[in-house]
Write a structure and sequence with these properties.
- The complex is a heterodimer of chains A (689) and B (95).
- By secondary structure, chain A is of the alpha+beta class.
- Chain A contains 13 helices and 30 strands.
- In chain A, strand 2 and strand 3 form a beta hairpin.
- Chain A starts with 39 loop residues before the first strand and ends in a 21-residue tail after the last helix.
- Chain B has 95 residues and is an all-beta fold.
- Chain B contains no helices and eight strands.
- In chain B, strands 1-2-3-4-5-6-7-8 form an eight-stranded antiparallel beta barrel.
- The radius of gyration of chain B is 12 Å and the shape is globular.
- The chains are: A alpha+beta (689), B mainly beta (95).
- Chains A and B meet through strand 15 and helix 4 of A and strand 3 and strand 4 of B.
- Chain B: This is Lipocalin-like domain-containing protein.
Chain lengths: 689, 95
């Protein structure tokens, strides 16, 4: 359970605010470059001595949002580059300085060489800022209200990942970006998946100064130089165009006999719908409600489960023609279907990838799937508005190339977890009671999916780009996906008993120690709740399960200096999580503790994996005690640290456990205390609920 | 009482040819849902979480893109053998 629910807002949401905090980081890193959080280094004007508080501070020089980026190489001839840069200062995983910067660059050829391209590096910033915008033929483009630009897929050139930001606190307002550039290899003719190199093609420094915006731009406007290996390569401009990071549109068509979901209350006097849900994640999603009553295709039973071919045909005959090189436009079709068809599908893996998806209004929430559907059990989607909206948004998000979180991270109450898993996450002692499923459905993606939606390269995300899930890594677990420290540099030691009684909470401690000669930047909180540390338990059959914290601490842990010889530690009582008991049966297990983080864009970490043997009960006392405590409510009691007297079943069972060992009656009868009792020290109830 | 075989429980992939690399190493069936877990060296798996049922002698299951696909299958003791629409045959053993 997370202490930090995302909230919808009435009215326009602040872009990028509202993702469900992820319970665990991705188990596999995407096989594409992906910008990570970075620190902002404050820097005064060059040569200026440190002084009193500046009287002309810089404001909004690097405002969050989308910037149009233009790069004019000195020796590029007819070659220029244009694209977008996303300055994300609202990412839940943005780190202590809360900033992630990524961008996409496209090649732009012009018909006639413009003398500007041959200007020497000494061109003034005023001149560079005053060059007129021109089209491919050198003609000034019409003055339109700036918005997030979209460029043709075939002209995609490279992905930009900022690894360092330096900004001045006072005027002149400067920003220096160190960016890793990953050159893109276009897909072969007839295919849709290109490739990025595993390491950056080059590192670029953008030295920028804020200047007055050039009409029609109104936001922050920065001009400067593009520098590679200390060599000035040309002029660069960044012009802010939107508080959103990306934009797209969804065209909705409804088959005869079907309905589409309607906006649902947000609990704050407003409503939530596809556009407001995406606005939480920094996307400007335009909803185009196109046709209603689309005729049922001949030979198709609309109340049966639809095959992908029939859905693709329906899309091609009903959707408005879309130029995917100028509009990230997807098609969402609502058809009836019936219970048991899967509630929706991202069917379009035919020809051009990910153009459309479908949602089934007469599918629903059969109790045969999970009892945790509660009040929505056996109802059709059309009659459960919040769940219907969630399910349709799930398919839209598949179409933007996002995958189930059961596979990428863990099941949670977020849009890309399958519906049944969401119900199971919400399930528990209150299953079936009003107000659980669907009311507690969180209409937001989690941190991982939000990160992808904002910062994955354009070709991976956009409709008509990479095929579904083709960005997914090759299966190396995340811990080994990181650059691991040598123990002589940074050592992780795990303190845990080699054996534990069956049903006994298992106290595990771990310590991170700097064994090197200099300071290292490491997490200052390595507890499980701070999400830098993870525990994975592998049983004797080789089946691995992540052990997730029941509570997440939302005050962001930070990266901080750890001096040589210094340590940072944490402990955790491993017993039960929302996935069940850590050691559900006696036997041998391997416990893997990993502490991982991103060091200036480089994934690093440390791992330790001791063995533990869970002992078989040796007598009826141990057996009975295990039967008492291996109960989900007792699990929650332990996960909450005890004193959870609202858990009446747990309170009762633990009172019985307390009475079974060490009591006067037990001692009088020469009854031994249960072996597992030692693990409940400090956890037993001291009153009757 | 139904004569349909029960898939409930955990299964581990065995006897898997190269064509089955996209199916998860481990499967868990419970009630009307399943979850698939990747093995350590596996990439993206097409069965990750969703619904399943036995229908008309076939295993119908929703995949990673929520598509509902029917698979030929048979159970012999603790061995579950599946053939996908492309003709790839692979097996799981009940854990």
């Amino acid at each position: 359970m997370c202490n930090c629910q995302g909230h919808s807002t009435s009215g326009p949401a602040a872009p990028g605010v509202g993702a469900t905090p992820g319970l665990v980081p991705p188990v596999v890193a995407p096989e594409v470059p992906l910008a990570e959080r970075i620190p902002i280094v404050d820097e005064g004007p060059e040569g200026a001595p440190p002084g009193p508080v500046p009287i002309r501070p810089c404001r909004n020089s690097f405002r969050s949002g989308c910037y149009v980026l233009n790069f004019t190489p000195i020796d590029g001839g007819r070659r220029r580059y244009e694209g977008t840069m996303r300055v994300d200062r609202s990412a839940p995983d943005g780190g202590p300085d809360n900033i992630i910067v990524s961008g996409d660059l496209y090649l732009r050829r012009i018909a006639f060489p413009i003398p500007d391209a041959e200007q020497p590096a000494t061109e003034s910033t005023a001149a560079a800022a005053s060059r007129p915008a021109t089209d491919e033929n050198g003609r000034p483009i019409p003055i339109l209200r700036p918005r997030i630009p979209i460029f043709p897929r075939s002209r995609y050139h490279s992905y930009l990942q900022a690894v360092r930001v330096t900004a001045s606190a006072n005027r002149p307002c400067t920003v220096t970006l160190v960016v890793e550039q990953f050159d893109y290899t276009q897909p072969a003719a007839g295919t849709f998946k290109g490739s990025f190199p595993a390491t950056a093609s080059r590192t670029v420094t953008l030295k920028l100064t804020q200047v007055p915006a050039v009409f029609p731009f109104t936001g922050p406007h920065l001009v400067g130089r593009w520098i590679e290996n200390g060599t000035d390569k040309g002029a660069v401009t960044l012009s802010w165009v939107s508080s959103f990071f990306r934009r797209a549109s969804v065209e909705i068509d409804v088959l005869e006999g079907a309905v589409a979901p309607q906006p649902v209350p947000d609990g704050a006097g407003g409503t939530e719908y596809f556009d407001t849900i995406y606005a939480k994640h920094g996307w400007q999603l335009s909803v185009i409600s196109d046709q209603v009553g689309v005729p049922v295709p001949a030979g198709v039973d609309p109340t049966a489960c639809w095959n992908t071919g029939a859905l693709h045909n329906l899309m091609t005959t009903s959707h408005q023609p879309a130029d995917l090189d100028t509009d990230w436009r997807i098609h969402l079709m609502f058809v009836p279907a019936r219970l048991g068809c899967g509630r929706g599908v991202m069917y379009d893996q035919i020809d051009v990838p990910r153009e459309g998806c479908a949602s089934f209004c007469d599918d629903g929430y059969p109790l045969s799937e999970t009892a945790n559907f509660g009040a929505a059990g056996d109802q059709h989607q059309r009659d459960v508005p919040r769940a219907f909206l969630r399910s349709a948004t799930h398919e839209i998000t598949h179409t933007f190339n996002q995958i189930h979180q059961e596979q990428e991270t863990a099941a949670d109450n977020s849009i890309m977890t399958t519906t049944g898993s969401v119900a199971n996450v919400l399930g528990g002692p209150t299953t079936g009671q009003p107000g659980i499923f669907p009311d507690q459905i969180n209409l937001a993606v989690n941190t991982t999916v939000r990160h992808h939606l904002v910062h994955m390269p354009d070709p991976v995300i956009r409709p008509g780009g990479w095929p579904f899930a083709s960005w997914f890594g090759s299966g190396v677990p995340q811990a080994s996906d990181h650059n691991l420290f040598d123990p002589s540099e940074l050592e992780l030691t795990v303190t845990a008993p080699a054996t534990v009684a069956f049903g006994q909470p298992y106290e595990v401690g771990w310590t991170l120690t700097n064994r090197s000669d200099g300071p290292l930047i490491v997490p200052d909180d390595v507890s499980l709740e701070a999400l830098f540390a993870t525990i994975t338990i592998t049983d004797a059959e080789g089946v691995a399960h992540p052990f997730r914290p029941f509570v997440i601490v939302c005050d962001n842990a930070r990266l901080a200096e750890l001096a040589p010889g210094e340590s940072v530690s944490a402990t955790h009582r491993v017993f039960w999580s929302s996935d069940g008991f850590a050691f559900p049966q006696p036997g041998s297990y391997r416990l893997t503790v990993a502490v991982t983080w991103s060091a200036s864009g480089v994934p690093v970490g440390v791992v330790a994996d001791p063995q533990v043997f869970v002992q078989f009960p040796v007598n009826s006392v141990d057996n009975d005690a295990a039967g008492l405590v291996l109960n989900p409510e007792v699990g929650k009691w332990v996960a909450l640290g005890g004193n959870a007297y609202h858990l009446t079943e747990a309170t009762s069972r633990l009172r019985q456990l307390a009475d079974s060992g060490g009591s006067a009656d037990a001692l009088a009868d020469n009854r031994p205390a249960p072996s597992l009792l030692a693990g409940f020290e400090g956890l037993l109830p001291d009153r009757e609920g | 009482m139904s004569d349909e075989p029960s898939l409930a429980g955990e299964w581990h992939k065995v006897d898997a040819p190269e064509c089955a690399a996209g199916y998860p190493e481990f499967l868990t069936f419970s009630a009307g849902r399943y979850t698939g877990r990747r093995g350590e060296s596996q990439g993206f798996v097409r069965w990750d979480a969703g619904i399943f049922r036995l229908e008309g002698g076939r295993l119908v299951l929703s995949g990673a893109d929520d598509r509902l696909v029917a698979y030929a299958f048979d159970i012999d003791g603790d061995l579950l053998r599946i053939t996908d629409p492309e003709g790839c045959t692979f097996s799981y053993r009940r854990v």
